[in-house]
Amino acid sequence: MADAHLTNDEFFAQLASLFEHNRKTGHGTVYLTQKRLAYGTDASAEAKAEDPLWDAHPEQPLPILIRASNNKSSKRKGAGRPGSERDNATKTKTSTVVQPDQLEAFYVRYAEACRAGMSGLKKRDRTKKKKDKKKKKGAAGEVKG
Amino acid sequence: MPYLETSAEWYEQSSLLLKARPSTTRITSKYTVLKPSASKVSKRERFASKRSERGGSATGSPPPTVQNPEEPVATFKLKTYDPVSGTCLQYETNKAAEVGRLIGTLSRLGRHQAALPELPEDLTQAASAEGISTPVVESDQKLGAPAAEQKAAGGKKKKKGKK
């Protein structure tokens, strides 16, 4: 990745704008990736050969790399064809590094951001359940009474 | 490249994979909104017309929620992938209610990735299987790293041939 990592605050701002863009266009994808940031901390080849599980027990907790991106989208030619109504959009990539001690706080914000951003998913359908509950309550009341 | 049935199963398998290969495994979550294809739209329209013909009286089920045939399809997909062994575990959902819980799962898996010990209170909030409860108990005895190592070797049958 050519771009430098953002701070966590900047990352959340970017993430929100990715989701916002997704909502505005009405279609598209947001990719989120997390992995251990082991770059620069790799053990030497000798150490690896000695202990095949060298990465299973690092000396100290390692930071985590979080990446976010959207999809590239390109307009198709020809009226009426699928994709002819969309705009060209370039791929946006952002990333941030979360230090192990900030992990909990980060994920709390992360969950909030994702819940707010993923508005296209199906909401919980409460109507049916409420009706069922009322029926059950009524039935139970009858039995008691 | 299996899709796992439940998120708990996905979490269990992913945590095992992370223990075995903590530095190469990555977790990708993909939120995607797609406009339905032309064939999907016509399928929905046919389904809706059939339903309205029947009227839903035969089964006595509640009146069907009217779905706009042009409504976009939104999915949330979680994927744990280890490029070295080629293991890929996936879970997909379309329910908004699950997102918060799944991010919580990601945070617990993130602790694996950061090589932090698991939190003991995770047990209470997890709708997870018993398999995960053992590592928590063992890591309480400050044997976090060796315990993880044993499990990586013993728990993962697929991962033979590492030593």
Compile the SSE list and pairings.
The complex is a heterodimer of chains A (about 140) and B (about 160).
Chain A: H1 8-25, E1 28-36, H2 45-50, E2 64-70, E3 93-98, H3 103-117, H4 126-144
Antiparallel strand pairs in A: 1-2, 2-3
Helix pairs in contact in A: 1-3
Chain B: H1 7-20, E1 26-34, H2 38-54, E2 73-82, E3 87-93, H3 97-113, H4 122-125, H5 133-140, H6 144-154
Antiparallel strand pairs in B: 1-2, 2-3
Helix pairs in contact in B: 1-3, 1-6, 5-6
Overview of this protein structure:
The complex is a heterodimer of chains A (145) and B (163). By secondary structure, chain A is an alpha+beta fold. Chain A has a single domain (8-144), classed as Signal recognition particle alu RNA binding heterodimer, srp9/1. Chain A has helices spanning 8-25, 45-50, 103-117, 126-144; strands spanning 28-36, 64-70, 93-98. In chain A, strands 1-2-3 form a three-stranded antiparallel β-sheet. In chain A, helix 1 (8-25) runs parallel beside helix 3 (103-117). The radius of gyration of chain A is 24 Å and the shape is extended. Chain B has a domain at 7-51 and 70-116: Signal recognition particle alu RNA binding heterodimer, srp9/1 (2-Layer Sandwich). Chain B has helices at 7-20, 38-54, 97-113, 122-125, 133-140, 144-154, and strands at residues 26-34, 73-82, 87-93. In chain B, helix 5 packs antiparallel against helix 6 (144-154). Chain B starts with 6 loop residues before the first helix and ends in a 9-residue tail after the last helix. At the A-B interface, strand 1 and helix 3 of A face strand 1, strand 2, helix 3 and helix 6 of B. Strand 1 of chain A pairs antiparallel with strand 1 of chain B.
